[in-house]
Design brief:
By secondary structure, the chain is an alpha+beta fold. The protein has helices at 26-31, 39-56, 96-106, 115-119, 148-157, 194-208, 213-218, 221-229, 250-260, 262-272, 290-297, and strands spanning 6-12, 17-24, 63-71, 77-83, 87-93, 122-130, 136-142, 164-170, 175-182, 234-236, 240-241, 243-244, 275-278, 285-288, 307-309. The protein has eleven helices and 15 strands. 34% of the residues are buried.
Length: 310
């Protein structure tokens, strides 16, 4: 469909309420192309990717928004990132034995276990960092609720963000999500009072709850808005493209090896004949031979022999 792999912004003309709709198909498949996640892990990661995208789209910044779930459960780490240009990537770390136990408890791998069953006792962390590293904001809340959207609701309630609601869907084929926010009443059109805005906000949330996951997944964005808000004056803006983007580079990997230390790096080189580092996000392999390693730890030696391969 024409509105896949893009984000649509929309605005209620009569009230200070805005929203975003997003569908990912090709970019989602590229993100998980080199991974064989269990369904419960895959779908939760997909929801996190959508959430990071929807949150990033509400903020004017040049940098990266990271959404991280970390706990003592079988899926002990999940990270989804979105750049200000709407490039996304993500990964999950899990223990297979723990996921098997969750499958047994829920009845099937395709069931949707509670987020707490996967993460255990842990936290949801939202981090916003500018490209130049000059500014960094972080908000942390406990994991709670049945699904990721409910934990994010706790994040908004415990931060100074605008009142926000999220609807998320993920499966093997694609991702979808909708976000709505109530802006400050000062942004309302002249003559609209606070009570009217509050009533409108309650009403659009209730209407949003009637949207089924199947409708969110399958309908075009204009159809979703017509289905929900055909009695309101809603403006749908031009779409912005969304794509899978990994931020790995040979320079970053070189810095990581330098941080690891010369002795450890040379130990790997001696054992294997080369040092290979594979990106956890995109599976790209960066290979360093003896000349490259010498160049990393000796400013007088230039490393030109290495390469990066897929």
């Amino acid at each position: 469909m024409h509105d896949r792999d893009c984000l649509h912004r929309f605005m209620f003309e009569q009230y200070p309420i805005r929203g975003h709709l997003v569908h990912l198909d090709t970019s989602w498949r590229a993100l998980i192309e080199h991974r064989e996640y269990p369904a419960a892990i895959r779908d939760t990661l997909g929801e996190a990717v959508v959430a990071s995208l929807l949150l990033a789209a509400t903020i004017k910044f040049e940098g990266v928004l990271s959404l991280q779930l970390q706990g003592d459960g079988p899926m002990h780490l999940m990270l989804a990132q979105c750049t200000s240009g709407l490039g996304v990537r993500g990964l999950a770390r899990y223990r297979e034995a723990g996921i098997t136990a969750v499958r047994a408890a829920t009845g099937a791998d395709t069931d949707a276990p509670r987020i707490q069953d996967l993460i255990g006792t842990g936290n949801l962390t939202v981090t916003l960092e500018t490209d130049d590293g000059s500014r960094r904001y972080q908000g942390i809340v406990p994991i709670a609720g049945q699904r990721l959207a409910q934990s994010l609701q706790g994040y908004f309630e415990n931060s100074e963000q605008l009142p926000t609601r999220l609807w998320l869907h993920a499966d093997a084929a694609g991702l979808a999500g909708m976000l709505m926010q109530k802006l400050p009443t000062a942004d309302a059109k002249p003559g609209v009072d606070v009570a009217a805005v509050d009533d409108a906000w309650r009403r659009v949330q209730l209407i949003g709850e009637t949207l089924t996951l199947e409708e969110l997944r399958s309908l075009a964005d204009a159809q979703i808005l017509h289905r929900l808000f055909n009695e309101d004056d809603v403006r749908l803006f031009e779409p912005s493209p969304v794509y899978f983007r990994c931020r790995c580079s040979r320079e970053r990997v070189s810095g990581m090896l330098q941080g690891l230390g010369e002795a450890e790096t040379r130990s790997v080189l001696a054992e294997r004949g080369e040092v290979e580092v594979r990106c956890d996000f995109c599976n790209r392999a960066y290979v360093f031979d003896a000349v490259d390693v010498a160049g990393l730890f000796n400013a007088g030696v230039a490393g030109e022999g290495g390469s990066s391969v897929h």
